[in-house]
Amino acid sequence: MALFNFRREAAPTQQTPAAVEAFLQGYSIEVMPRTAEKVESFRDLLPAGTRVYIAHIDGTPIEDMVATAKRLNAEGYPVMPHFPARIIKDRATLLDWVARYQGEANVKQGLILAGNPAAQVGDFGTSMQLLESGAFDGFDRLHVAGHPEGNKDIDPDGSDRMVMEAARWKSAFAERTDAKMAMATQFCFEADPVIAWVDRLKAEGVNLPVHIGVAGPAKLQTLIKFAIACGVGPSLRVLQKRAMDVTKLLLPYEPTEFIASLAAHKAENPDFGIESVHFFPLGGIKTNAAWVTENGGASGVPAAQA
User: Fold this and answer.
1) Which residues contact 183 (CB under 8 A, 6 or more apart)?
2) What is the spatial distance between Cα 23 and Cα 135, in angstroms, rounded to a whole number?
3) In Å, what is the CA distance from 149 to each residue of 2, 50, 95, 240, 280?
4) What number is the average pLDDT over the span 178-185?
5) Residue 176: exposed, middle, or buried by beta-carbon count in 10 A (0-12, 13-18, 19+)?
6) CATH dotted code for 2-300
7) Would you place residue 161 in the very low, low, confident or very high pLDDT band (cuts 50, 70, 90)?
8) What would the mean pLDDT of 200-207 be, rounded to a whole number?
């Protein structure tokens, strides 16, 4: 059955469970300028209209970010560049970035996030300051960061008090902007805690739809390295347990079980707050896109094959 076998060249299969195919419909994926350069044509990898986030790592020139956005837009993909508050020097810099994205690459979407606390170089320290700046007036869609397992940079005491307070603020902001908003999360590896967190958001009055972060197929050692660096919490134990199993140690991790569990819950609970899947292609965008094509049925068919 295709859901449980990874074959990169295989075509979509009629055996793909309907719940998984529906859950993966409209997924998004993340690239960086240096990884995008290695892709000859995104149409060979991604379904038409796939939203592509462009991660802005500290030190990446804005010229490279805009050029990547322009290229993706020309290939027919809506682009959502990151705007990390702490690497933006001041309001003039922010307005310059927005003007370049809009003028050169027709960008109308953005992921607004705080970024690394140690990297703050100027006036902005939080995503909320960026949202309040007015720089994104006229954008069609704004996404903000979500943390299903908390964030120790924000809540050093290990709670999620400040994270949840910020989520409520962002939800309230969504009610007073014309832009569509959603919460794109850090990647996780366990379905049950994610389900509990999404339900808790609703109970806390946070009405932002969730775009759940998923780590794409990758070597186990690679995933553990990224998970630790990105502050992934308790669900890291899924990888640690796998690392202790000699029969699985050398096999690539695939998000099959995680996706299937969330998809089944969504199918049984249509009002459940996860709206979409967002992939972090930690094992490479080609590998990630191939996995979705294999496991997502029609929802993963590249534009060139549609």
Assistant:
1) 143, 144, 145, 146, 167, 170, 201, 206, 208, 209, 210, 211
2) 33
3) 31, 27, 33, 17, 17
4) 96
5) exposed
6) 3.20.20.220
7) confident
8) 95
Structure tokens at 297: 């049925």
Mean pLDDT of the chain: 87
Please report the pLDDT score of residue 163 as a whole number: 85
Q: In whole angstroms, how large is the CA radius of gyration of the chain?
A: 19
How far apart CA 128 and CA 139 sit, in angstroms, is 16
Query: CB under 8 Å to 17, separation ≥6 — which residues?
Result: 3, 260, 263
Q: Give the separation between CA 242 and CA 254, rounded to whole angstroms.
A: 12
**Cα(207)–Cα(174) distance, rounded to whole angstroms?**
9
Question: What pairing do the DSSP bridges indicate for beta strands 180-188 and 210-215?
Answer: parallel
Beta bridge partners of 213: 187, 278
Section 290-301 average pLDDT = 94
DSSP character for 234?
T
User: What pLDDT sits at residue 179?
Assistant: 95
200-227 burial string, b = 16+ CB within 10 Å, else e? ebeeeebebbbbbbbbbbbebeebbebb
Q: Are the beta carbons of 278 and 28 closer than 8 angstroms?
A: yes
Amino acid at 194: V
